[in-house]
Specification:
Length: 420
């Protein structure tokens, strides 16, 4: 099956909520190519984001195709149906060629007893001392712990198989890239759990190319990682080692790699990720999304005049509707209400003040992570403005595009794929 789509070693997921930044985003991949590193763009948009902005998957496809054509990008690119499940997948069949099958909600749902027993029987290699190249200490696994992990994850992997086969039936074998995501859940998966999940994924026959586990630490929207960096680094390296082992042991596709759902801007783990992929010669898919929408606001504010007025209007509306806007993202934001400036105060800001508060420069004293998180989840406000907002994006394009490209290249692509 030589025509099967295979995701390259390095890829970046970008989100373009209002379908106006495709070219500016692709420009960041072009800059990477100019630095000698191939980073393949994947435009991702979840069903939730489509519902909030009132868009459809074909608009993501159209914007991606247009950007690729305009900039004569001759390498692969994909359109990711991000975080789909069996209820939402169908509207993405035509437009997407990358599917992030989200089974986090099924984790913990009991699998059939017979299926758990069959899994244990099929995988005697997991029992005992398992020494995985690249992992310091052997994993000690007994049958009880396999039963426990299988009971926790088997139903989720079976559901992933059901969705995978559904997509395959509609699109054809090898015509799409498959990611399985388990990041939107309460507790992180250990490398041992990840190994068993991959054994189960292989049993299901899922041609998985990227897997998004939940990592240790907090991945809040739009702001930096919060957690133990050393622990993260060890876990990340062990996950890579486990994936390499699963490729040999279970015959999952040889290009399988980790997908990091960053929730945007996890700057402090980018260094450890870069070191780990270099050390193991591994690939990575870095998924970002909302960071680009915030660059639109930064660009509007930087443009001044009407652009700045609109950025202030978005903040004011987001501030008044903050409770409602935060509900869908409650688990992944930590906003300190006391740190949110009042709209009246923001309305007095000059362009530089707005930009400095919003731009993610952790070293800047003016940077306000609560304001940034609120605006990150506040794209519904701009969506409600409709063409008034998107016309302004067009009018202020040069200022916005510069920020979008620079943000993706300098703050994301460079530290993760190229190294500082
Ligand atoms: Zn995710």
């Amino acid at each position: 099956m030589d025509s099967a789509l295979l995701l390259a070693k390095y890829s970046i997921g970008v989100g373009d909520r209002f379908a106006h930044q495709g070219k500016a985003q692709l420009q960041a991949c072009i800059k990477a190519a100019e630095s000698g590193v191939e980073v393949i763009p994947v435009w991702n948009k979840s069903n939730r984001e489509h519902n909030i902005t009132g868009s459809s998957p074909c608009s993501t496809r159209a914007a991606a195709d247009e950007a690729v054509k305009a900039l004569s990008w001759n390498k692969p690119y994909y359109v990711d149906a991000d975080h789909i499940n069996i209820q939402t997948v169908d509207r993405f069949i035509e437009a997407s060629d990358f599917y992030t099958i989200d089974v986090a909600d099924v984790i913990g749902q009991p699998a059939e007893f017979a299926a758990v027993q069959a899994f244990v029987k099929r995988h005697p290699e997991l029992v005992g001392e398992l020494l995985i190249p690249g992992v310091d200490r052997p994993f000690r696994i007994d049958t009880d712990s396999i039963v426990q992990v299988a009971a926790k994850y088997l139903a989720a992997v079976q559901e992933a198989g059901r969705i995978y086969r559904h997509i395959e039936e509609k699109k054809g074998r090898g015509k799409f890239i498959t990611e399985v995501s388990m990041d939107e859940t309460d507790s992180p998966q250990t490398p041992v759990e990840l190994l068993m999940v991959m054994a189960a994924v292989a049993d299901e026959g899922i041609r998985i190319q990227t897997i998004a586990p939940k990592f240790t630490g907090r991945f809040n929207k739009g702001v930096d990682y919060v957690g133990d960096l050393e622990k993260f680094s060890e876990e990340y390296s062990n996950d890579i080692a486990v994936i390499a082992f699963a490729i040999r042991q279970y015959g999952v596709p040889g290009n399988l790699k980790l997908s990091v759902h960053s929730g945007s801007d996890k700057f402090s783990i980018y260094g450890p990720i870069h070191q780990a992929i270099k050390k193991f010669d591994a690939g990575v898919h870095l998924k970002t999304a909302g960071t680009t929408w915030l660059e639109e606001l930064i660009g509007l504010a930087e443009a001044g005049g009407e652009g700045l007025d609109m950025a202030k209007e978005v903040y004011s509306e987001a501030y008044s509707h903050r409770e409602e806007l935060c509900v869908p993202y409650a688990a992944v934001i930590d906003i300190d209400p006391a740190k949110l400036p009042t709209p009246a105060a923001v309305n007095r800001w000059r362009s530089e003040q707005f930009v400095a508060a919003l731009r993610h420069d952790p070293k800047s004293p003016a940077y306000n992570s609560s304001l940034r998180q609120l605006l990150h989840v506040g794209f519904k406000v701009a969506a409600k403005m409709g063409t008034r907002y998107t016309d302004m994006l067009t009018a202020m394009e040069p200022t916005i595009a510069k920020n979008v490209t620079e943000n993706l290249f300098a703050r994301h692509i460079k530290p993760v794929f190229i190294g500082e």
